[in-house]
Amino acid sequence: MRRLHAVLVNVDNETLRRILDNPEAMAAVERIEGWRSLGDNIIETIINKSEKIKELKNKAKEKNLSAKEKKQLTEEEKEFKSKRKLVQEKLIKFATRIPAFMYLTDFRENTLQDVITKIETGLFETVTGLTVKDFHLLVQLKVFNTEQMNQAVFAFRRYEDASLRYTGIESHAGLSHYGLYDTVIARE
CA 100 to CA 158: how far, in whole Å? Predict the structure, then answer.
């Protein structure tokens, strides 16, 4: 399940740079629970480490690195991967709140995007800690992988229905369509 959540968020340098270059986006990610515990300038640090690693690897292509430079490259890579993973985990923590939101809402035939942005905005803010405006901005900056969101929402809907049916509950009798993230599909 952790792997599925990892594909829902993008933490490549381009995405991180788009966040860094947008003050509203920076403010939005800072509202994600636990973000501040990562420390100040975490995104800048990741980007800088990435560039330093690229520089050292390019130098290694041209000539052999000294023992000191090899050690520095290893340490830089280790710290870079560690910090990127921390950022990814915080974004995943937010992404894992979306199924909680889906579970709490009764709107199954609407797209999740519509439920978040038009129907249950207050519930979304309460569950995730982000405003709809924040969410829109982060989606626009491609922090969340919306292509994978449809698959994740579909998997959640199937699992939810199966578990409710198993207990003898038909919570949404007559439901003919499932709303995914940004599309609707027939139930059968």
Answer: 15
